[in-house]
Predict the 3D structure of the following.
Amino acid sequence: MLTAHQPQQPETYLIKPIHALTAFLLYVGAITIFYSFFNAYTHNPDAIGDWLINYQYGFVRRGLWGWIHSVWAIAAIQVILYAIILFCFWHLLQKQQWNLWLLLLTVSPATLSFPIFDHAAEGRKEILYLAAFAVFVAMLNNGKTKWLNTYLAIILPICILSHELTIFFMPYFFIAALIGGFKVGRLPIITSLIATVAVILHPGNALMAHKICQSVGMCNGSISYLSDDPSVALERVRKVFFQRHYYIVYPFALFLAIFPALELWPRAWLTFIPTLPLFFLGTDWGRWIYINMMSLFLLLLLMQRKSRSKPNLIFIVLYALFWNAPLCCYFGGMEWGYLGLFKRAWHYMN
């Protein structure tokens, strides 16, 4: 007869979680490196063109990085930023208590692996914001807050002047600061407001878009959008919403993306609210979901939310394999997640 309580045996894994995580992040990193230099080689008008917008013909939104003229240098910067993002996630994830929902967020096609499903999604300027936010969360997590206000005062204007979408994701910094018990000072707010006003007052026009495209030799994609006003953007979204079945595809993708987060934090959906205007102004709904989910994932890692739901390999595989959030426009089929990625790789090798 047992007279004392038996101590609970620690969970054992066939493969240590940290080793599996490292292998997965290296896999994602390797593909993003390939895509970065592939986009540079093909002069992709979105992944590369957005970085070539410059101040040669006057101040304009997104022009901060235009002084870099080499597509290979741009690809190298993209690789460095992705390395920062992946390292911060690795650093934060290894401190977590693994559970089913955390693993689902890690392998989700709407978080870390989103760029590998479409090379056109790789290298967009949101990686500046994501790298900046990942570093901010990692520093909060480590208790290194001495220079955080200085960091924010510098990095937030850089992100805003690089791409105006940062404005809509700035609330994540304040939520993270609240969670981490850090008070954001006046200086970051002032510098961010100055940058925001600057990009609002200098949106660009058709003449500037034409001059820039002629100077860099890339006239499609992001550079051409400098000529669009909000009414044009709204009309473009309206058309694809009905023509490309956005009302079916993206609610489905959003549900699959966010439900693991909701299991850890039922109010997680509220973080999407400040970014809703993007869904009216841009057709890249997959990107907006991806940036939100990456930001939300970082918040959950900072909160260190726990769950009693143990990892279930079959459920994780089924969740990850058969869906993804298309970058935009849904031209005829979701790529069936990792399964679709493997199928495309097999097709190209043969």
In short: The two ends are 65 Å apart (CA to CA). Residues 17-42 form the longest helix (26 residues).
